Amino acid sequence: MKETVLSIRDLSISFKTGNGTVSAIRGVDLDLHQGETLAIVGESGSGKSVTVKAIMGILSGNQAIDSGSITFRYDRDGERVEQDLLKLSKREMRKRINGKRIAMVFQDPMTSLNPTMTVGNQIMEGMILHLKLSRAAAHRRALELLRLVGINDPEKRMKNYPHQLSGGMRQRVVIAIMLACNPEVLICDEPTTALDVTVQAKILELIKDIQRKTNISVIYITHDLGVVAKVADQVAVMYAGKIVERGTVNEIFYDPRHPYTWGLLSSMPDIGTADEKLYSIPGSPPNLLHKVEGDAFAPRNIYALNIDFKQEPPMFKVSDTHYAATWLLHENAPKVEMPPGLRERIDQAVKEAGGIWQDSRSYG
Ligand code: ADP
Ligand code: MG
To answer: Could you tell me the pTM of the whole model?
Structure first.
């Protein structure tokens, strides 16, 4: 069993707004294992970004952590320590954790880049500050990092400003900056969403390659299941501020149990059907300004049982690594199978030697 680097338990977060309180995160449990990639998937607004911002301690002023813990396990001076990140002040997070042990790549690389500073200085800054490297040593390592992230002519690029680079190159530079201090955890929040498809593929390949070389643990957020199939070891499916299903990438793609996961998989473009969406889940997610009764997905779920509208389902165990929050898994529930079209696609994918589903856009 791999060591768990980060464990989130019973995390609940709400936001005070002019219209009332939004319960954005409603009791999330998650584990990130050493050297693995955990993908968090779900429609826009399901709480993916808020969850990882809580890990980084960078939520906005109107948020409240209503419950929970985020335990981070790491080596400090040769000793294994455990720290609840929610107990650290913003200042301590900045000094001890952020950028140093846990680094984050955002959708828009400009969020992380300083437009008035050269690429080289931005990569070197953290190494000089946190790792106490000399300028010369930091310069050497910056060149190495630029090579690692696949940037040609790194000597020249060191002297460039961000506006002189393409979007894909900027995201590579951000990844180099984030890797500069040898973090234990890299969080990527839709890092390729703003990039075109071929550049996306290269960045995904880069992240996997870095993981093979450094054994870093990665949280990868995306709304694109094609990306998940490419990068993930573990998958957590999020809906309306909760994890509704989690398992290994094979369990989620070949043996999904939650009707929401069925919907997400059914709406994934298939091989040969180029960008054309086969299916989209009807309706829209609930407004979290209002208290959710029962299963938040029930109003959109054609398989919903009466109990779904009244009582929230617990996480039912499918295997040691696979859990889903749906009453359909209760022993007394009627036997409901996934949609036949999805069953066919999965059987087809199992038959084909290629293994996991591939998105028609064929990354990499
Ligand atoms: P996503 O899964 O798309 O990353 P988010 O985590 O960004 O979703 O958002 C989850 C929910 O939290 C959404 O309903 C969003 O409106 C709400 N939310 C996020 N940030 C704030 C904020 N600063 N104030 C009020 N509501 C917020
Ligand atoms: Mg987001």
So the answer is: 0.93
